[in-house]
Amino acid sequence: MEYHSFIAGLPEINADDTKSVLTLSALKADIEEGVAEKDCKDLNLFYYAFDNQNLCNMLMNPEAEWQILGTLSKEEIEDFIAYAKDGKIHQDDHLPAYFAEFITAYQADAPIFPDLSWADQLTTLYYLYALESSNDFISNYFEFNLNLQNVLLATAARKHKLDLNKVVIGNTEVAENIKTNSSKDFGIAAMFPYLEETMRIDESNSPLEREQRIDALRWQWIDDNNVFHYFTKERIFGYMLQLEMVERWLKLDVAEGQKAFGDYVKELVSAVKIDIAQ
Questions:
Q1: Contact at 8 Å (CB) between 193 and 278?
Q2: Helix and strand tally (H, E) in the chain?
Q3: Whole-prediction pTM value?
Q4: Burial of residue 256 (number of CB atoms within 10 Å: 0-12, 13-18, 19+)
Q5: Residue ranges in the chain whose pLDDT is less than 70
């Protein structure tokens, strides 16, 4: 389904924006009103990240701030937890399917992925769920982002002689290679075309610059892979991802950092040559 008027009405956003043109909260409300229910289910994969935070906080840190961008209310998550305590599965298509597995395991103190923290176990389930999306753009983005994070985590773990099994998440071919291959490129150069740029991020000693470069690479991936999507949900999903980056940098209130982020994106446009047909 195409959304000509909806997408045409979205304000343009750029990596170096210095003021907000639209909030994620406002966009979420617009999507709920202007996008078909079946497409909203795909777009909700973006917002499930906030549901994950709320679930973890409710179980482990109940005083933490509630993430309003989640798809679930506090009452819905409380009810879901209560069902799991009784060994029941809450049958509701509105709920992320992996919630039941995670809550049941947490309540039983029976880790699903024993080497990982509970938060990372939930993240792993989230990614495994998202990778099964029937939408290629969405599943490919999650695969890219998973690979990006795993390479960065594994590179840092190698440097500090840490167990890769405790930091690398997922059970994809790339993740398994990262955990078991001792070569410099983890044996994934052919599988992850953004590897060189990702490993270059690790050369920076500045945490701020690292985050800027990570987001710049994400931004470039979205642009590379949305070339042929004009008025579809893929364009909306990419817009949400980029708006989240802009909003996060604006909240940090680091003017020079925001400009640098924009500069890194522009640099990648000319530096990263990716075959988008892959």
A1: yes
A2: 12, 0
A3: 0.87
A4: exposed
A5: 86-94, 253-278
